[in-house]
Amino acid sequence: KRTPIEGGKRERRKTEIVQELMTEFSLDLLLKAIKLARSTYYYHLKQLDKPDKDQELKAEIQSIFIEHKGNYAYRRIYLELRNRGYLVNHKRVQGLMKVLNLQAKMRQKRKYSSHKGDVGKKAENLIQRQFEGSKTMEKCYTDVTEFAIPASTQKLYLSPVLDGFN
């Protein structure tokens, strides 16, 4: 798979390389070695002389990105450009941000934790896992269950008591 060179401008980069090496080697030899068609070379050579049509837009995108400390991604930058009077497509903004290597900071989502640490008094372990009692009401166990009542904001609590005898 080919790696993108500044937004897929591979042939343009090859043309620049040929331009640099023209003094040392012949054009035919360079084009053959770099596997570039003569017509493609001359097309990109003509394109090198043209000014970048996105220069103003790139500068505006960079200024918005810096102004908002890297928190704006392409969608918000697109909306900001629209507010500033630029008629531009969101996909064009996304592509230019990729070429400029601008990437918004992603916020880290924290995992929910209801644990509040050690709250209240911790009871001593008097039972020591000996759940059987020798007489009634010697060892009692309980638990609380909360029920939400449908179509109401009230709650119902159930707290059964179990005797450890028998």
TrEMBL record:
It comes from the Bacteria. This is IS3 family transposase. It comes from Streptococcus pseudopneumoniae. PANTHER family: TRANSPOSASE INSF FOR INSERTION SEQUENCE IS3B-RELATED (PTHR46889). Residues 54-110 form the HTH-like domain.
